[in-house]
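Could someone model magnesium ion with this protein?
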Amino acid sequence: MNRVHLSRKPRGPGFAIQDPFAPRGMGHIAYIGIGSNLGDKIKQCERAISEILKVDRHKLLAKSSFFKTLPMGYTSQDWFVNGAIKIETDLEPTELLGALKTVESQLGREETFRWGPRTIDLDILLFDEIEVRTERLQIPHPRLHKRQFVLVPLAEIDRSLIHPALRKTVQELLDDLKEDQGIERI
Ligand code: ADP
Ligand code: MG
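Reply:
Sure, complex below.
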């Protein structure tokens, strides 16, 4: 975990004195999917973004529009609001997952069931060009390429973004989806 420590950006003179060799500008690029279908959905998505950005090792690089989308998986529930952001982060993937889970619980997400209603859902969609396949964390997000509600916001940020495992752009993945899953810009 030494490497994690060394990749942190100096945060002030005190830190620089402790670690004069800490590299600067070593941020990772991460894309985060945001979704909500309980309560004031747009407000919760906005709040989640501002809570994520309160972590002083995150910088917002781009933000998609919000979209109204139909539920998938478990379809007898209210429509969702979905969007995505692109951030620069000094956190490693598992640390970022932890930070997102903290924001989810701050916003009152309660465990229901898989794909059930939620006040907020924060997913790591892509992280640099890495691939992670553990039980707790999978990057790229395993269902990213099948979901319009993920691909459409991502394409709005950067349609030529590459899925590192499938070696296709976000636009190509979108074109591969045959049917319209029900999504409209808010
Ligand atoms: P989904 O986002 O597919 O609707 P959930 O949010 O209910 O499903 O799933 C939560 C669990 O998924 C988390 O506890 C987390 O450990 C795991 N998970 C695996 N990969 C990721 C990822 N890339 N981003 C966020 N959570 C992930
Ligand atoms: Mg999730």
